[in-house]
Design a protein that fits this description.
The protein is of the alpha+beta class. It is built from 16 helices and 14 strands. The N and C termini lie far apart (61 Å). The mean pLDDT is 92.
Length: 459
């Protein structure tokens, strides 16, 4: 009978097993010292699949080669036991729908259920990995839920803290309001969907509009507005400032005894359904420092409690402002965007977060307290309520529907929200030069990654 590839493989595997070939490589005397190999471990809450075969094959090649070169290569298998994949699985099995359901059940009981489930597919993995010919020590494995592993993580954290490299702060990230947790950039890319949202052009009434004779306003008591555009009306109760481009040209437009400021390059698009007259043009730098009225009374009351209250509801220059879309004037809500938050740090603009981590408005948002900002069944529902308020208070200029790609949670399909989350961070910038120096000594394969993709990322 002619040999088939599976039969040949099985014979080789049997020979390796009967003669303990892998074990002998672990027992042999090293002539070159140790070669340390770190394996990013899989979750055992799921079955192995095709993607694991590719990664395992690559991970097997280097340790084999280094072993044949005379190095001692201890290849320990590991299990990743933490994180949302495990929690999400148990939530489904226990029919828990929200974080509050977990707290009602009891965090201890929930953790025990997670721990009991972590290695449910370990036997399948222990059959799969050797069958594909990979040599790795699965008997002397490690688990990220073991006390020893967790204690090591806390020791590392303590060492970083001792060296002054740990700080508490905020970072704007995508938050799932159902899971009440932030998602990594990689996770966010898994759930984008094309959706139709309502974008809105909002009128911000200026307090101290004073220009040179470049602007011809006949009535000194006329209302003058900044026009700002946003695709997320639910963030407007968190508006703390407006941003303009220093060198961008802005035109002052007259419409029925009211005046509007818009970037010159955007006038045609913004005013496509309006009859208007251009009464002047100014540089963005001339707008910096102007003050405007807050959109909501409850926001103004909240800002009064902030030590930086004097910095709120003013115009600032920012390099992220462009004229590719919108009005050239950007609505700034520091608690809901990376650029917004960074601008608030630069100018000490108040940080007011009017949304809870479960995606609902806080109690002081009197008009909509407790309402979800992005309801799963109808993500635009709350935006429509905000727009209705703006219209009733003569703060709405116009609306339009926009079709764009929006991120959804890949686990529960809830729409994500951009949210500045409080967390602990490592001050990596202090290590930058050491990281770059270490990277320069690494033998990268392919070589261009060292100074290319990875090197540029470090820089």
């Amino acid at each position: 009978m002619q040999n088939t590839f599976p039969k040949i493989e099985e014979e080789i595997l049997k020979y390796w097993q009967d003669n303990q070939i892998f074990q002998k490589t672990l027992n042999q005397t090293s002539t070159e010292g140790d070669f340390i190999f770190y394996d990013g471990p899989p979750f055992a809450t799921g079955l192995p699949h095709y993607g694991h075969i590719i990664a395992s094959a690559i991970k097997d090649v280097i340790p084999r080669y280094k072993t044949m070169c005379g190095y001692q290569v201890a290849r320990r298998w590991g299990w990743d036991c933490h994180g949302l994949p495990v929690e999400n699985l148990i939530e489904q099995e226990l029919k828990l729908k929200t974080k509050k359901d977990i707290e009602t059940l009891g965090i201890g009981e929930f953790n025990q259920a997670c721990q009991a489930s972590v290695l449910r597919y370990a036997n399948e993995w222990q059959k799969f990995i050797p069958r594909m010919g990979r040599w790795v020590n699965m008997e002397n494995d490690y688990e990220t839920m073991s006390d020893k592993y967790i204690e090591m993580i806390w020791w590392i954290f303590k060492e970083l803290h001792t060296q002054g490299l740990i700080y508490e702060g905020y970072k704007s990230m995508h938050l799932c309001p159902r899971c009440e947790t932030t998602l990594s950039n990689f996770e966010v890319t898994l759930g984008y969907q094309d959706v139709e949202d309502i974008s809105v052009y909002v009128k911000f009434s200026i307090f101290n509009f004073q220009f040179s004779n470049k602007v011809k306003i006949q009535n000194p008591k006329a209302e003058v507005y900044f026009l700002a555009w946003t695709t997320t009306p639910w963030t407007l109760p968190g508006n703390m400032a407006l941003a303009v481009g220093d060198s961008i040209k802005y035109q002052v437009l007259s419409i029925k005894d009211q005046y509007y400021i818009v970037a010159a390059a955007r006038v045609k698009e913004v005013m496509k359904n309006q009859e208007f007259e251009v009464v002047g043009e100014v540089n963005g730098s001339e707008l910096v420092g102007l003050e405007y009225a807050p959109l909501f009374d409850f926001t103004a009351e909240q800002v009064k409690k902030d030590s930086n209250a004097k910095s709120a509801f003013k115009v600032y220059a920012a390099d992220f402002v462009s004229t590719e879309e919108g009005t050239g004037i950007v609505h700034v809500a520091p608690a809901f965007g990376e650029d917004d938050y960074n601008l608030s740090l630069k100018y000490q603009i108040p940080f007011v977060q009017h949304v809870n981590s479960d995606g609902t408005f806080k109690d002081y948002v009197s008009n909509w307290a407790g309402r979800s900002v992005k309801p799963k069944k109808d993500p635009s529902e709350t935006d429509r309520e905000i727009i209705k308020y703006l219209e009733e208070h003569s703060l709405l200029f116009s609306t339009e529907k926009v079709r764009h790609s929006y991120p959804f949670c890949w686990r529960c399909d809830s729409p994500l929200i951009n949210y500045a989350s409080s967390s602990w961070f490592v001050r990596v910038i202090d290590l930058k030069e050491r990281l770059l120096a270490a990277n320069a000594k690494i033998n990268w394969v392919p070589e261009h990654l060292r100074d290319g993709r990875f090197g540029k990322w470090l820089e």
